[in-house]
Each structure stands twice: as C-alpha cells, then as structure tokens.
Amino acid sequence: MFGLGDLFYEDDSSHSTNSTDCHCKQNNINVYGGQPLPASSKLSSGLCGIYNQGATCYMNSLLQTLVMTPEFRESLFGLDVKEIGTLTKENNHKKVRVIPLKLQHLFARLLLLNAQAASTGELTNSFGWNKNEELIQHDVQELNRILFSAIEESLVGTSGQDMIRNLYHGAIVNKIICDQCGKTSERQEDFLDLCVTVSGSNSLEQSLSRYYIQTETLSGNNQYRCGSCNRLVNAKKASAAKIRHLPPLLTVSLLRFRFDFQKQERYKETNRFAFPLQLDMSPYVEDVSTADDTVYELFSVVNHSGGAYGGHYTAYIRDIDRLGHWTHPNDEDIQVAPDPKSGKVDLIECDSPLELIQVILNKSPDKGMPVDTLCMEINKQTGVSWNKRFKGRYGPINKFLKKHTDRFLTSTNNYVCLHTATLSNGVGRASTNNSCGDTKPGTKEVITTKRTRMRSPPPEAGYCWFHFNDSRVRPVRTKELEKLYSGKSSAYMLFYRRTCLQRPPEARNSPEYMVPKHLIQLIQEENQDLDKERLMYEVKMNMILIKLLFPQLLTLKDGALQTKDNALSYVELAVDKRKSVSDLLQQIEETYGELLFGGFMVHFAKLLPAGIHVYYCVSDQQDKVIADMEIVDNGFLLVWDGKQINGDKIYMGASNEPILVAIICPEHKQLNHAFRKSLTVGQLKHEMCSLMGQDPHKTVISHVAATGDDMDVSQLLPEHQDKTLDELNITNGDRFLLEDSSDKTKPRILFVPSFWTADLVLDISVEATEWKLMTVGELKTKVLSEIHGKGLEDCVCRLRPEDDNLGLLPPVPECARLCESGIKANNKMVLERGVAPQTDQLCLTFTPDKPDANQQNVEVMISGHKTIGDLLYVIIEQAGKQGTDWHLRRTNWCGEAADLLDDLGLTLVECQLKSGDHLLLEEGLLPPKGYIKLNIELYPAAVAKSNYVDVLSSLTKGVNGLVSPHKDSTAGKAPVNLGEIVIPLSDTVEDLKLMILTLSEGDNLLVPTIDFLRVRLVDEGQLTTVLKDHKQTLQRLKLSNDITLGVQVLKDEENMSNNDILLEIKLHIPGTRAYLPSSELIWNTTNSTTPDSLRHAIASHLSLPADRLIMAKYYPSKYDWIILEDESQHKNNHPRDKKKGHKKVNLKQAPYYIKDGSIIGVKDLDYEKENLDDFSTQNDIDGKERHRLEAEQRKKRREQLRAAATTLNSGFGKGHKEMAIKIHVDNFR
Q: Per the database record, which ranges form the USP domain (predicted)?
C-alpha cells in the first residue's frame, strides 16, 4: 500500500483553517435524553456531502470531483473483489488493496446513502493517517498527484493498473530547431495535470498560449549547441512545450501562490483569471490531424477561499449523470438544526449570511426589524455574533444589507425589511424607488412593485451545477462560476472532460449504475440502520416524563397542597407528546387504575414555593395533542375527581396562586402560611388573626418587604381593605407584622443584636422604623447607656460584628447607618477598645514577620485611596523596622502567603483590598514594575547516555558489584548559588541566558555560546521545565518573582523546540531493586505522543530492540511507579474500555502527564523474567511505609478529637444546640 502519511506532513504550523468554514461534525451528539443524534437525511439536492475531519476540506473537494466523474467512478467500480480483496475473515493470507477498496465503499455511500454527509475516516485510515494529519491542511493539487500515484501503486497487477494513465495522463514534447542544419531535438514528458500561471494572464486561453504557442529565439549568450553542427548556433524553441497527447479527462492547476522576495513571504494572486465552460485545445496540440477530439467541457472547479497561509476549499461540480435534484437557489430549504436542550428547531446553521438574514426576517410578523434587533437575533439563534462569524469576510452588517438591495430594503432610521421579490420567492423585483424609508417598526406596510421579470429558466439536464462545501451541497447557477475568476475565493483547479464522451441512457438518474451488488446491499443495510436510528431518536425526543399526583398522596396544609409525610410524593408516567389527551387518559387508566375510583379528571399543576397549585382541566380537551397543552417534561398532572381533596375545597387557576408569607406576632411567634393572591386585605386580616388567635378589631397589620439588607415597613390602611394581594404586589417571602393597636408602648422587635462584654450580655431591641435612620454611633451610645455605671463611659471603644463561622469581623464606621453597614437581624456585636474607622478607611492587619513566627497581628487603618507605597511606609514605621528593603504580600483564607503587592503606585481600592484583609511584611526590595527577580543556581549536568553494553558484559561475567544500588554521578551534589538577577519580563530566554553569564559566579562557566547552557525551573529542589525557544519572552513563560532557576552546562549544543521533552531514563538492574546511573533523553513529540513512540526513542537511545523494553513513570512524591501501556496493552488490561472505541494513549495527558524532568524506568525483557510490573526500589518501599504510618497517625488524631468533642458535648442536655467558640472580648476594667 502506498504510504501517504509522511508525504502529507507539513512542519509549517501556520497553515490553519477557519473554524467557521471547516465544519468538523461527524458525530452530532444531542444532549437531550442522552440520545445520539442520527445522521440527517439528504438535503433537497439529493447529493451527499462529506464530513470535515478537522482540516480535510481540500480532500473532500477532490473526492467529490472524482465521484462525480463518470469515467473514474465506473472504472473504480469495475475492479472485481477477487482482484482487490476484502477485509473479511474469508480473505486470510490474501493481499488486500485497501485504498481502492475503501474508495469503492466511500463512493457507494456518496451515491446511495440516505444521509446528508458521509465520513472519510475509513479512507484516511487506509492512508495511514493519524489524527494529527486530519488537522493539518494541505494543497489540493499536491493531493491530486499523490492520491493518483497511490491508486496506481495499489492497482499494479490488476485489470485496473492503467486506469489513471488511460483517463488522466497526457504527453507534452519540448522541441528545439537548429537554424543552421534544421535538425529538431525533442524531449517527451508525461503529465497528470497542466500547470499554468495566473500572474500576467487574464484568462486560461492566454496563459495556455504563452506556454504552448509562442516561440523563443536562442541567440547571443543564450545560443544552443547543436549535435550535428557541433557548435553553438541560433535556434528556435517553444517557450514551454507542445501537447502531443491529450487525455480524456484534462486537469488544469492554476498556480496562484507566489513568493515575494522583497517581503520574504508568500502571497496569493487574486487578479482576474477567466476560464471557459468549453475549451478548444487544438491550438496547443502538436498535430491536430492525429489528435483525438480536442474540445473539452468544464465539469468541476475546486476553489480556494483565504490567503497563502490557510483557507478553505470547496468544489463547484456539474451533475453530468443527473444524479441530483436541481432547484432554484431561492427555493432551497435552509438547513436548520434542533436545539440540543429543548429539541425545538431554532438554531439556524447557515453558511450564507444572505439566507440566514432572510430566515430571521421571514419569522418576524412584519418581515422586518431594526438592525440592532437583527444582530441580537443572529447571536441568539446561531450562538455567534455577526462580527465574529461574518464581518471578516462580508464586512459590517449595514454595508452588507445595502449591497443586497435586491433582497432587503433599509431605511434611514436603521430599519430593515424583506424585499417584495424575496417574499414572493423571487417572482418579481420591487422598484428601487419604493423604499421603506418611512416605514416604522411594527407597521405592516405592503411594498408594491412597478415592474416584474420572470425567473431565469432552470439549466439543461446534465448541465446543472452544485456547490459542494464539505457536508453541505446546494444548487447554484452557472453564472455563479464567474465569481471564481478573482478575489480571495477563486478557482484553484479546473477539471475538463471531452465532449465526445457520451453517457448511456441507463446511467441517467441512476445512482446504482455500475455499482457492485455487494456494495448496493451493504448501503441498503446501512440505510435501514439509519432509518431505525431516526425512528428511535424521534420516539426518544418526543417522550416526556409526567409526574402524576393522586389525592391519596396529598393533603391541604398551611394554605396549599402538600405531599403527606412519609408518603410517596408522585408517580411517574412516560408518554409520547405527539399523542392526544385521550390517549393520555387511557394510558393513565391502564397503568394506575388501582389508584382511581370511578370517573376521574386530570388537571395541570405546578410546584410553587407555597406548595402544589392546580390550574386548568386537561381531560376536557381530549382531541388536542399533548404537546399543545403546555405539558412539559417533568411536569405535574393532578388526577382526581375535580372537586375536593380529602374533603377540602381546592381553588384553581392563575388568579388563585398561593403566596407563601411569614406572620409575626408581638410574642415573637412566627408562622409560615400560604394565601391566595386573589384575597383582599380585609379577608387576609381575618384569616391571619384566626390563625394567630388575635382579635381582628384590635389588630394592626404591617407589610414588611425585604430589599437586600434594607427593610421596607408599611402599615395596611383601611383604604387597602378591598385591594387584593396581587394588586399590592405581595410576593413569596414577604412578612406581615401583627400588632395590638391598643398597646402603644411595645416596640417592634425585629432586630435583636447581642452585645458581649467580659461577663455582660445585653439584648438591645431596635424598632424597624428606627433601623433605616439609626447610625452605628447612635447604636453604640444606646449600648453605653444600657451599661451605665460599669465604668465604661469615658473609654474609647467601637463595635465589631461577630460571625459564627468567620469569627470577629472588621469594625464598622460609626457614621454608617445600620441598614447600610452590613449588620443584619440577630447579629452578635462585640464592644471593644479602639477607634472606629472613618467611612473611606480600611481596617487591615499585618504580621511583621513570617506567619509561623507566632507574632501577634498588628492593626492598621488607612484610607482606601492611598497607594500600596503609602501603606508599606505606614506598616514599616508601625512595625519598628529599619530601611526600605521591605515588601507586602497578601494571605489566603487560611493565612498562608499568597500574591505579592508589587505595584506601589496602585491604590488599595484598585488592588481590591478590603477591611479585614491580612498582609505579611517580608524583607527584600521588589524589582520595578515590569521586572522580576530570579534566583540562579548551578546544577551539574546529567549523563548523556548510559553505558548499557558494559552492564551486559559485567552481568555475563557474574560481577556482584552490580547488585548494590547505583547512584547518579550528580546525586547528592548540592547546587551552587550563582546569585540573583533582575530582568524585564519583555526579555527573551536568550537575554536571560546572556545575563546569567554576567553574574560574578558565572564567570567560571566556560560556555562557548548560550546553546551550551540549559535553564530549568526548580520546584521543591527538583529540576523541572526547560525554558525552550530563545525568542520566547519571560512574560509568556509566566515567570514570577522569587522563583529559582537551575542552570546546567552542557557538553554539546542544545536548542530544544516546544515539542521536545527532556526525560531522565533509568535502566533497571536485573535481579535487584536498583538502577544504573540515569541518563538524559530528548524525546521529540511532533509526530506522536504514544507509548510506542517513546519506546522506540528509548530503544534508540539505549541501542536496544524496542520489543524488549517495558517502561514505567516514577512519581517521587508518592514513591510509586505507573506502567506506560500502549493501546493493545490497555485493551487487554481494561476490557471494559473496548466498548468506548479505539483511542490512542497520549502520554502528555492523564494519567501519565509526562513533561520535562519526568523519570522513566526501563526494564529489558531478555533479562527480566519475573515481577515485570514492579519497578520500586528499597527507598520506594521505605517511603510508602512512612506514608502509611503517617496516615494512621492522622487517623488516630482525628478519632481522639472526635471522642473529646463527644465527651464535651455529653454535658449538655439532649437536643442542646452546639455553640461555636467565641473570640475573647477586651477587659474594660
């Protein structure tokens, strides 16, 4: 089989595709119900597209051209199974020609499969491609040559070995005629396609003339040496060649990509280059009399959209055999995808913005809307805004709308509507004088037409053109090919076919023509499977789960229907929403007949905060479809007699929805109860008083509504008596306060903060009306008046809230109002010594040393508008420190060191500091903004390669010294500190290496160039990531202050790429728990990151056969090894994963996470016969034992703490609520 993988690889990563253009949706998964979305049926064109595997649009365009080429398609189908073989079990020990076989299968699917698109996965697998190949875009002209070469190689020795040559190969001849003797020298060459330049030509005929008609005189310094004359002579030479033989199928490649030597970059020729629908090649043929028919017809154009470094390929193909159904482009159905969540059709997938806007405007009742609304609809229905999806290609939306005046009418007030011609499917064209300039949004103005024109007739049979854009195929007019003459989206390959090639009548409108019977049967089975999947999907998508409620399960409680305690809440019933209500009633009776008593009714119900509420009767409309009754998935239906539940009357309808409110009475009792929102205030008062045992004539009701932390209290006056709760905007969660109107002395006790002093607890009541006006200072004064005589009148004190979980909170400014200070109902407050902060001040704490130094926190108050530099100065002065070589660092929620506050010019507010934050004062001067300080240490270089051959020879001689553990030559050597450097973040790795060499300790480093220097990150004393790519900036590498870098001096030059990984290889000594000294391996992961790729790299590194090696990765923190399994080993060890499909192991991902510095252990199967999975050393065994003992000790400590807590709580009475430990209060005595 011809190998395509290496030939298609490109090292230039700049070739990328537009994710919008290259759709990669081979397996659409609909999340709804976990049901996979089956392949869509063919579009109205009747032709099948091809899924894009990532960046395979170039291949899709070529394959669609080939399958629509009758001669190629029928020659391929003419290959017998006995010649190319099969992949069945009966074909054992026979050579299978996989590429032609998979091409046959793909072509059969494209012709006969009832699906919108087919997959090329099997074909690309036969090419030997991996997933990376499918994500790299290549040149379609290159693919055309390589694919044909692969087919020719695959068909050697079969009846089809000359298929490509007979169909596509031609011959050109180069001639030189001597002016002296008249001798003609010629050289004949075969061609697969004619390459013509676009630059300097306006048309295909002009470019062909330059190549095959014009002659050139060889004279002067460019004379020709004639063999007969034996000297330099003048001669005539054709500028390129003459065509001696023309193939039946002529391929023309347009050379649009060129190189600008001044700018040193590639660019694409987008100038006009016309090509004819019918091409006469007789002027370019050597001898017309001996040539076959020289007239060709265009039948395919592969175009390229984009630039020289990436883009998108599509194909315009003429349907020669009338296999598709051509419709007028305006009549073509817009492809619409279902919403994955709801299953409804509202997400439009249109590659053409013209069609997208038409669909959106057509849905509007007025066939128009403001442009701003149109943009929102595009974003809402497609999930992508106009600017992101279309602006780069089509420009701003206003410009686009004005460009298509035949479809849309725009007004001066930025309103757009559909043209009359568009509304009538293009039958008439509206007059341009009749614009919608005076049309206002919401008006239904009819736009009349002054003149009409008939639609252009459909193309002649066999001359209908279709646009193949990956998975979508749509009809196009022949005139649309003229758009491919120039521009960013322009023709790139032309395919012509001799006009004398006539098609038999039986081939017309017959996709099965010449298709082998076994392939027809195969596709028929696949169509049957697709039909079953679509049927199952339709059933699954239309199945909803209804929750049925029965009176036996319900009770009327607190004003609303509730489920009974310790009873089943509801029963479930799965129904098809396409069925009628009559079918639903029958299904309920058949399934849950034992719960029914006589006749029954079904009502729609909802679960509200108050409980279950009944709305309308469903069973009265038995002819309606369930989907039209607002019955949704997981909705509720009540099955009952329609009158009462357990003797209680049930109020129904939206006007009687229950509202859950809280009733508070003066005795601090609170009751949650639901009331109908149709109740009047007078009725509500009587019902509340009845529930709370109050006299309605002596009771005043006040409504308490919560607005954030604020409370809005309003008394319900007599004029409110006839208003309903709905009219008063009463909502769930509101509260009503019941007060005795005859008692004027009792305050409204809504907020009860508690104030704690040494041994004194006070309950201070604040009226709700006072809450909005009282300040924190006034509250403090009230507290001090309550404790008069305790000797606290003259002390300076402040209030601090206390939270059960967060502890003591920052002090509150005294000028702040209670409703704005964050103090909530029933807050505990602490009265302590100290000055209260001002409104703009922040109360911060800091530790003047390391967090573990048992230093007491120091408080500092400073304005939030001060800078970090001001704060640092204040803290240094307050801590009694000397000098300015200090900096501040944040702490996290558990007090550990976090981010540095390194920008001294930012304010505290800009740094998002807030009251209560804790900071650390650390020694050391931070570098300026945009700079970082790095610690540099010198590490010894590791061994480049293990001497494995010497080990083998020593083993064969029985040397016992190898049994003892080997230590690395670098192990145990402490790194040498070279000093610190301050470097800008904008500097590169190259600048960093040069600066390291300037250190005083670095003068001893004998390094010819920086390529002999390796720089790595140091994490917990271990060398990890290598800083690669000399042009990479330190900011992009995300280096931060005070990190340590390890430097190694190498014996050889090294310039690692981002795809290289530096590994430490340890070779196991057979029969021991020890390893040879480690060696370094640079593993290139450009082509593959699988275990098999790593195994071959290690085998080459150790000079051992790959099939003898078994590998494992070492995790030092866990003292554990994990075996690196390839796909076959993974399947054998994890048989359950076979159902998940074939998936290659990526060592960069979970669970391996191989990166720079990873340690890989290696065993040689020739010497290791037992314990192949055991890579552990004695140090690993001891380390795991230490971890086990530490885990047991932690477990014992937790059990002891749990037992102590149980003993402590046993002194409280049964059911006593646990109290959190409180923070000590200052002693005021």
A: 48-499
Tell me the C-alpha distance between 470 and 24, whole Å.
Answer: 9
Residue 915 has pLDDT above 70, yes or no: yes
Are 1039 and 934 a contacting pair, CB within 8 Å?
yes
Q: Could you tell me the sign of the dihedral formed by the alpha carbons of 470, 472, 475, 481, in that order?
A: negative
State the SS3 of 344-411. Answer: CEEEECCCCHHHHHHHHHHHCCCCEEEHHHHHHHHHHHHCCCHHHHCHHHHCCHHHHHHHCCCCEEEC
What is the tens place of the pLDDT at every residue in 704-761? 765 544 556 677 777 788 889 888 888 888 888 887 776 543 333 333 333 334 345 5
d(CA 1221, CA 805): 10
Which parts of 387-487 are beta strand (E)?
408-410, 415-418, 464-469, 472-476
> Looking at this protein, which amino acid is placed at residue 936?
I
pLDDT > 70? residue 295: yes
- How far is the C-alpha of 1078 from the C-alpha of 1160, rounded, in Å? 9
* Dihedral over Cα of 648, 651, 657, 662: its sign: negative
- CA triple 1070-1074-1079, angle to 5 deg: 95
Give residue 1137's Cα distance to chain centre: 25
Cross-strand partners of 625: 580
Cβ-in-10-Å burial (0-12, 13-18, 19+) of 227 comes to: exposed
Pick the closest to residue 812 from 845, 773, 775 (CA basis). 775
| CA-based nearest residue to 102, from 14, 27, 239, 2 | 2
Q: What does the H/E/C string look like for 1027-1051? A: CCCCCCECCCCCCCCCEEEEEEECC
Compute the distance between CA of residue 755 and CA of residue 735 in angstroms, rounded to an integer.
Answer: 26
- Say if residues 1 and 154 touch (Cβ distance below 8 Å): yes
Could you give the CA distance from residue 993 to residue 651 in angstroms, rounded to a whole number? 82
Question: For 252-265, what is each residue's pLDDT tens digit?
Answer: 999 998 888 887 88
| Residue 1133 DSSP symbol | H
Contacting residues for 702 by C-beta, under 8 A, at least 6 apart: 713, 714, 715, 716, 736, 737, 739
**Cross-strand bridge partners of residue 337:** 347
Contact assessment for residue 151 and residue 163, using Cβ atoms and an 8 Å cutoff: yes
**pLDDT for res 566:** 52
Q: Quick one: average pLDDT of 366-386?
A: 81
What average pLDDT is seen over the chain? 78
Q: What percent of the chain has pLDDT over 70?
A: 78
pTM of the model: 0.51
Report the C-alpha gap between 991 and 1032 in whole angstroms: 10
pLDDT digits (tens, 9 = 90+) for 10-34: 333 333 333 333 333 344 434 344 5
